[in-house]
Structure formats: structure tokens, C-alpha cells
From TrEMBL:
<dbReference type="GO" id="GO:0004075">
    <property type="term" value="F:biotin carboxylase activity"/>
</dbReference>
<feature type="domain" description="ATP-grasp">
    <location>
        <begin position="120"/>
        <end position="318"/>
    </location>
</feature>
<dbReference type="InterPro" id="IPR011764">
    <property type="entry name" value="Biotin_carboxylation_dom"/>
</dbReference>
<dbReference type="InterPro" id="IPR011054">
    <property type="entry name" value="Rudment_hybrid_motif"/>
</dbReference>
<protein>
    <recommendedName>
        <fullName>biotin carboxylase</fullName>
        <ecNumber>6.3.4.14</ecNumber>
    </recommendedName>
</protein>
<dbReference type="InterPro" id="IPR005482">
    <property type="entry name" value="Biotin_COase_C"/>
</dbReference>
<dbReference type="Pfam" id="PF02785">
    <property type="entry name" value="Biotin_carb_C"/>
</dbReference>
<dbReference type="InterPro" id="IPR016185">
    <property type="entry name" value="PreATP-grasp_dom_sf"/>
</dbReference>
<keyword id="KW-0067">ATP-binding</keyword>
<keyword id="KW-0092">Biotin</keyword>
<dbReference type="InterPro" id="IPR050856">
    <property type="entry name" value="Biotin_carboxylase_complex"/>
</dbReference>
<dbReference type="Pfam" id="PF02786">
    <property type="entry name" value="CPSase_L_D2"/>
</dbReference>
<keyword id="KW-0547">Nucleotide-binding</keyword>
<dbReference type="InterPro" id="IPR005481">
    <property type="entry name" value="BC-like_N"/>
</dbReference>
<dbReference type="GO" id="GO:0005524">
    <property type="term" value="F:ATP binding"/>
</dbReference>
<keyword id="KW-0436">Ligase</keyword>
<dbReference type="GO" id="GO:0046872">
    <property type="term" value="F:metal ion binding"/>
</dbReference>
Length: 445
């Protein structure tokens, strides 16, 4: 096992990784921007290095500063968390070229799955179901219109280099396609430096279901359970649960088998997630993308499997076998609520100083937080404040615990979306388990 670890991230996920590393007696190094100096993750690490100002390009995306901090502190390995540099193949290569251990998949796998067109074609060749769409980038809007005629409307317009719900639009007809194509292309060029666009069949009613995989040190790829991620705003997840209320045992086995094929196709190592769209009307599922990193929602998988995924990441990267029964059945039901610094109506960011922070507690209640009382939530980074995770004997029990925990979570200062969760947990569609990715827009009318 590695003996020292630099965490190239911030907030909740940095704190989460540090917690596991310390339990394993691994020395931890935090890197932080100037405005993050007082956050809990900085205080809880064994060492901390300031790597630059607020702008992520000058701090959390500053590869030179991060590598210099690793060298200065004698770190053996780097864990990138999620976001920032976690899916940056060039950074992964540079880390390893500098003699450090990269806690994640190989750079080749990151590259292969980072381009959505390449990933889609790789998955199709591996026998993983993909939705009908373009196998190559469409050259211009006229080519897009011609392709759409063969696929059929409505059409999903996607940035090939995008991910995490960014760079997507839906077109119901030719006029809308002309508009959305231009918007997505311009966004992709601005955000990713790559304006390549692909088209895919769009499902008006669809569920977002993903499968956790682990590429083991011995070369095998295994699939754990699935997660339901259909409660979203602007294609960004708000609530996840495991297991999915929509999945039958037979469908679960098919999805897990497809996820293993996906991992094997790129010789995957470490933790990753195969995201799929599920048509609830037919039971068909289609590959959406692979996230070549640890997911925000990993705690719900940990709870129903009784494992620590960060520990497994560290073991795999160290060349060790995982230390749990890979064939063990899951137990119970877990729900994660992403508590964000945003208003609960329009979901617009609402940073500010945390005046009151009182976390709920009790059996089956877990809070993975990035802040505490007295900290300031700045506008420079993602709005995630904490992940409120509930574990129950079954879904009804987990929902009951979620309602109680939401009522008991007090945050004053920055805006927060706890009132939205209180509303969602009483929503008949959500409570029934028969919901889809349109639930939040329907709630907001």
C-alpha cells in the first residue's frame, strides 16, 4: 500500500478521501487555493500546500503547482477526486512520468472514453447497446439535418468532448436543430476547445441508470450494483438511489454484463462508472458515457455493498487485491441528496458565509460535507455543500430517514436546496419509484 497521498481536489471529496487515507495510516497532503485555506479538508490533512489563487486554472487545474507540491512533500501518489483534473489524460500521464502513482484508470482509457464519438463506436464494437446516432462528428448544420432525417426526431445534440451533462441540447424539428447545433457547437468550442458535435436518438421519457465498475489489479473487470440518477436539473444530478426502483434482477444482470464489456474494451483499471439511458416503456438500455473516475454518488454503492470504494481505489493502484467479496449480495436501500448552495426554486447559485451548520445524525444517516460553521462558500467552484446519504432496510425506510434528516439539517447563510428535497420526498411520483428525468421540470411547472 502507498504510504503518502496528495489529494488534488477540494471540499467534500478531498475531505472524504483524506478520511479513508488516514484510517489506512496513509500520510495525507492537501493542496488548496487561497480562498479555501480555512476549509475543513485543509485542516484535516497531515500537510497542506497553497497552490494558487481562486481561479481553478491557477490552482486546482494547475498541473505544475500540484506536481511541485507533490515533490516538495514527498507524496507517493495523487488522487484527483472528481472534476478538475480527474479525467485529464495528459495529467495522468505526467503524474506517472514523474514517478508517482495515479489513483485512477490509465491515460489511454481516459482518452478513449473522453471523446463521446470514439467511446460510442468502441462500445458498439464491444457489443454494448448504443442508441441510434452518428458514428462520426457531423461536419455542419446541413449534414446534421441530413443525419437527423435518418435517425428521426426528437434529436439529442451533444458535444463530443463534453461530459457530466454539459454541452447538450434537444431538437424536436429541423428549425430547432439549426438553433441547437449552433449553440452546442459554440459551447463546446468555448468550454472544451473542440466543437465536434454528434447526434443521437432522444427519448422523451427516459431514466438515467449507471453501473459502478472496478478494474482490478489482476486485470479483471467487475461490476457492482447500479444507481438511479434520474432526478436532475439542467442534466445535472440532484438525487441518486441504489438499487434503482426500475431495475428487475434480469435487467440488472444484463446491465452489469454490458458494463463489464465496456470496461474490458479499454483495459479499465480502478473505479469507473458506465452510464446508461433506460427506456422504461421497453426495458431497453443504451450506453451514454463512461466516467473514468470516482463518482459524486459513490456513497450509496458503498452502503448497500458494505465497502469503502476509496480504499479499493487505493488498493488497486497499489497493485493489491480488493478486500471484499465481489459476489456478495447487496443489502438495504440508499439515497443520496446533493445539498447545494443554490436557491430551491430556480437552482441558481447562492454563495455566502455559513452562519449556522447543524448536521442531522442517527442510524443510517451519513453526511459527507465540505463546509462547517464559519466557512465561506465562494462563487469560484461547484455549489456542492454536502451529500446527505441515507441507508435503510428498504426504500420506504430510506425515504422516511431522508425526510427526517432533511428536516433536521440546518444551514443558514448561503442559499440551499433543502426545501426542494422536502418537496421531492413528498412527491407522489418520486415516492412511487416510477419517475424519469423529467420529474424536476414537472415539479417546477
Amino acid at each position: 500500500m502507498i504510504e503518502s497521498l496528495l489529494v488534488a481536489n477540494r471540499g467534500e471529496i478531498a475531505r472524504r478521501i483524506i478520511r479513508t487515507a488516514k484510517r489506512l495510516n496513509i500520510r495525507t497532503i492537501a493542496v488548496h487555493s487561497e480562498p479555501d485555506a480555512d476549509l475543513p479538508f485543509v485542516r484535516e490533512a497531515d500537510e497542506a500546500v497553497c497552490i494558487g489563487p481562486a481561479n481553478p486554472a491557477q490552482s486546482y487545474r494547475n498541473t505544475e503547482a500540484i506536481l511541485a507540491a507533490a515533490k516538495a512533500t514527498g507524496a507517493q501518489a495523487i488522487h484527483p477526486g472528481y472534476g478538475f483534473l480527474s479525467e485529464n489524460a495528459a495529467f495522468a500521464r505526467t503524474v506517472e512520468a514523474n514517478g508517482l502513482v495515479w489513483i485512477g484508470p490509465g491515460a489511454d482509457a481516459i482518452t478513449a472514453m473522453g471523446d463521446k464519438i470514439n467511446a460510442r463506436n468502441l462500445m458498439a464494437a464491444a457489443g454494448v447497446p448504443v442508441a441510434s446516432g452518428t458514428a462520426e462528428p457531423v461536419a455542419d448544420v446541413d449534414a446534421a439535418i441530413e443525419a437527423a432525417a435518418g435517425i428521426g426526431y426528437p434529436i439529442m445534440v451533444k458535444a463530443a468532448a463534453g461530459g457530466g451533462g454539459m454541452g447538450m441540447g434537444v431538437a424536436a424539428d429541423e428549425a430547432a436543430l439549426r438553433t441547437e447545433f449552433g449553440k452546442v457547437q459554440a459551447f463546446a468550442e468555448r468550454m472544451f476547445g473542440d466543437g465536434s458535435v454528434l447526434l443521437e436518438r432522444y427519448f422523451p421519457r427516459v431514466r438515467h441508470v449507471e453501473v459502478q465498475i472496478l478494474g482490478l489489479a489482476d486485470g479483471r473487470v467487475i461490476a457492482l450494483s447500479e444507481r438511479e440518477c434520474s432526478v436532475q436539473r439542467r442534466n445535472q444530478k440532484l438525487v441518486e438511489e441504489a438499487p434503482s426502483p426500475a431495475i428487475t434482477p434480469e435487467l440488472r444482470e444484463r446491465m452489469k454484463a454490458a458494463a463489464v464489456k465496456a470496461g474490458e474494451a479499454v483495459n479499465y483499471r480502478n473505479a469507473g462508472t458506465v452510464e446508461c439511458l433506460l427506456d422504461p416503456a421497453t426495458g431497453e438500455f443504451f450506453f451514454l458515457e463512461m466516467n473514468t473516475r470516482l463518482q459524486v454518488e459513490h456513497p450509496i454503492t458503498e452502503l448497500i455493498h458494505g465497502i469503502d470504494l476509496v480504499e479499493q481505489q487505493l488498493r488497486i493502484a497499489s497493485g493489491l487485491a480488493v478486500n471484499f467479496d465481489v459476489d456478495r449480495e447487496t443489502t438495504g436501500h440508499a439515497i443520496e441528496l446533493r445539498v447545494n448552495a443554490e436557491d430551491p426554486k430556480r437552482f441558481l447559485p447562492g454563495p455566502g458565509k455559513v452562519v449556522t451548520w447543524v448536521e442531522p445524525a442517527g442510524e443510517g444517516v451519513r453526511v459527507d460535507s465540505g463546509y462547517t460553521e464559519g466557512n465561506t462558500v465562494t462563487p469560484f467552484y461547484d455549489s456542492l455543500l454536502a451529500k446527505l446519504v441515507l441507508f435503510g432496510a428498504d426504500r420506504a425506510d430510506a425515504l422516511a430517514k431522508a425526510r427526517q434528516a432533511v428536516a433536521g439539517f440546518r444551514i443558514e447563510g448561503p442559499k440551499n436546496n433543502l426545501p426542494f428535497f422536502a418537496e421531492l420526498l413528498e412527491n407522489g411520483e418520486f415516492v412511487s419509484g416510477d419517475y424519469d428525468t423529467g420529474i424536476v421540470p414537472r415539479m417546477k411547472g
